[in-house]
């Protein structure tokens, strides 16, 4: 691929024309390409790693500038902010995370212009989120240097690439970190789960570019894993993965439970009404199970001279299970005074 032929397309999508085109080319040059060129004895420029390093810091400065602009005002005693320090930290982490940066590169279609080694090109490395994240930061670093280290030039570039205003508008809960959200999920009185525990299970990469992997456990049970450039971002990714797993699990179980509950309880109540019998009554029998997340409830259902017990993940589900058993008892007893049709 002839990078020079595509340079103007790239600059048009960025909305910025570099005075030094070599910086743009370096921003798109991966280490794999440089290594392969060296093996052939060719003289090659540096890869985009150093630009990525610079760009990471400049991106942080740009996001902080946006937050100061949008969430603070000057006053007699200094500055008044609409959010607390932790809230600002969460917004910054969300805006600059791998998912958001790689999404921006994919939408702009800039990853297709990466200069890769043959091996990386063959495996489709250009589409990897971490590679697109590196590209984003490299571009920011290149533009910052090209502008003579003028942050005011970088700000509109980052705004276009990230669409910061729209992001904050659509993510009103961005101030709530994944760890906070997971903690609230676990502490909810209907769940009463132990607090999540975060453990760094592995570290990889060179010292200047470490990648951390974190595992989130709840009550000793392993759930989500996440990776990041530091411990905080890895823990955040693990919390997000865990919350997604638990929410999906609860949604599936809740849908099944709701369907069963409405069906059995409604059928039993309908049977009683149709036969002019007293309505069934339910009794709460408490909880069972040592695992907090696998906690179950027990309930009994009494209908006439019959009684049945049931278990479920909620009191409603336990009552429905008891009702289902009682309906089965009615059908199974041929000599009962309760009729068995249409139940």
Q: What's a quick, concise take on this entry?
A:
By secondary structure, the chain is of the alpha+beta class. The protein is 55% helix and 16% strand.
Taken together, the total number of domains comes to 3
Q: Helical residue percent? A: 40-55%
Q: How confident is the prediction overall: mean pLDDT?
A: 83
Assign the structural class, choosing from mainly alpha, mainly beta, alpha/beta, alpha+beta, or little secondary structure.
Answer: alpha+beta
- Cross-sheet strand order for the largest sheet: 3-4-5
Task: Report the sheet-strand fraction.
Answer: 15-25%
Low-confidence stretches: 255-261, 339-343
The CATH class designation of the largest domain is Mainly Alpha
**CATH-scheme architecture of the largest domain:** Orthogonal Bundle
Radius of gyration: 29 Å
The name CATH uses for the topology of the largest domain is: Ribonuclease iii, N-terminal Endonuclease Domain, Chain A
User: What overall geometry do the principal axes of the alpha carbons give?
Assistant: elongated
So, the CATH homologous superfamily of the largest domain?
Ribonuclease III domain
| Run of helices and strands | HHHHEEHHHHHHHEEEHEEEH
Kindly state the number of beta strands: 8
Largest sheet: 3 strands, antiparallel
Characterise the protein shown here.
The protein is of the alpha+beta class and 343 residues long. It has three domains: 3-170, Ribonuclease iii, N-terminal Endonuclease Domain, Chain A; 178-251, Double Stranded RNA Binding Domain (2-Layer Sandwich); 255-332, Double Stranded RNA Binding Domain (2-Layer Sandwich). It is built from 13 helices and eight strands. It has helices at residues 3-14, 21-27, 31-39, 49-71, 85-95, 98-108, 118-123, 129-146, 151-162, 164-170, 178-187, 231-274, 315-332, and strands at residues 72-75, 78-81, 197-204, 211-218, 221-228, 281-288, 296-303, 306-312. Strands 3-4-5 form a three-stranded antiparallel β-sheet, covered by helices on one side. It has a three-stranded antiparallel β-sheet with strand order 6-7-8. A two-stranded antiparallel sheet has the order 1-2. The longest helix has 44 residues, at 231-274. It is elongated, with a radius of gyration of 29 Å. 30% of the residues are buried. Residues 255-261 and 339-343 have low confidence and may be disordered.
């Amino acid at each position: 691929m002839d990078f020079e032929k595509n340079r103007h397309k790239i600059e048009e999508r960025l909305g910025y024309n570099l005075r030094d085109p070599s910086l743009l080319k370096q921003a798109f040059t991966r280490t794999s390409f440089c290594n392969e060129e060296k093996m052939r004895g060719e003289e090659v420029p540096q890869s985009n790693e150093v630009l990525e390093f610079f760009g990471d810091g400049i991106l942080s400065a740009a996001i902080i500038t946006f937050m100061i602009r949008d969430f603070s005002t000057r006053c007699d005693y200094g500055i008044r902010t609409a959010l607390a320090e932790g809230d600002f930290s969460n917004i910054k982490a969300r805006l600059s995370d791998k998912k958001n940066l790689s999404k921006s590169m994919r939408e702009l279609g800039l990853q297709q212009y990466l200069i890769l080694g043959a091996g990386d090109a063959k495996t489709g490395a250009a589409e990897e989120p971490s590679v697109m994240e590196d590209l984003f930061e490299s571009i920011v670093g290149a533009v910052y240097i090209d502008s003579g280290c003028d942050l005011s030039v970088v700000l509109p570039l980052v705004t276009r690439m990230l669409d910061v205003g729209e992001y904050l508008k659509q993510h009103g809960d961005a101030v709530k970190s994944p760890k906070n959200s997971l903690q609230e999920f676990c502490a909810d009185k209907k769940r009463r789960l132990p607090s999540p525990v975060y453990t760094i299970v592995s570290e990889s990469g060179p010292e200047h570019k470490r990648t951390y992997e974190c595992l989130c456990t709840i009550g000793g049970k392993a759930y989500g894993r996440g990776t990041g450039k530091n411990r905080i971002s890895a823990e955040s990714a693990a919390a997000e993965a865990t919350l997604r797993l638990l929410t999906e699990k609860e949604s599936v179980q809740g849908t099944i439970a709701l369907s069963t509950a409405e069906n059995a309880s409604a059928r039993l109540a309908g049977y009683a009404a149709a036969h002019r019998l007293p309505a069934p009554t339910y009794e709460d029998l408490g909880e069972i199970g040592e695992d907090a997340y696998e906690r179950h409830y027990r309930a009994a259902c009494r209908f006439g001279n019959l009684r049945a017990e049931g278990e479920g993940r909620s009191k409603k589900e336990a009552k429905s299970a008891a009702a289902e058993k009682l309906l089965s008892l009615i059908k199974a007893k041929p000599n009962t005074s309760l009729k068995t049709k249409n139940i």
